[in-house]
Amino acid sequence: MDADKVFAAIFGLLILAIGLSFLLAFPVMWLWNYAVVGTIAGCSAIGFWKAWCLMVLCSFLFKGTTVSSSK
């Protein structure tokens, strides 16, 4: 494989992952603002960037790991 094709594939996957993370921040923002804020006293509404940061933080904290062992 050519090095340029490998670079383009990796760059494309990186752009796709970033775009998907931005797309998934909207449901997080909606769920926080309309489900949590009305239920828990003292919580305030959040914007898009705080929702995105919350989603990234939760993906770090609660990411499932798979371990495969071949015997």
Characteristic terms for this protein:
71 residues; mainly alpha; 2 helices; 72% helix; flat
Strand and helix map with partners:
Layout: H1 3-39, H2 48-61
Q: Explain this structure to me?
A:
- By secondary structure, the protein is mainly alpha-helical.
- It has a domain at 24-63.
- 72% of the residues lie in helices and 0% in strands.
- It is built from 2 helices and no strands.
- The chain has helices spanning 3-39, 48-61.
- It is flat.
- 3% of the residues are buried.
- The mean pLDDT is 85.
Brief overview, please?
The protein has 2 helices and no strands. By secondary structure, it is mostly helical.
Largest sheet, in brief, is: none
Strand fraction: under 5%
Helix/strand class:
mainly alpha
User: Could you report the average pLDDT, rounded to the nearest whole number?
Assistant: 85
Q: Ranges with pLDDT <50 over ≥5 residues?
A: none
Number of strands: 0
Measured between the Cα atoms of the first and last residue, the distance is: 32 Å
Distinct helical segment count: 2
Question: What is the ordering of alpha helices and beta strands?
Answer: HH
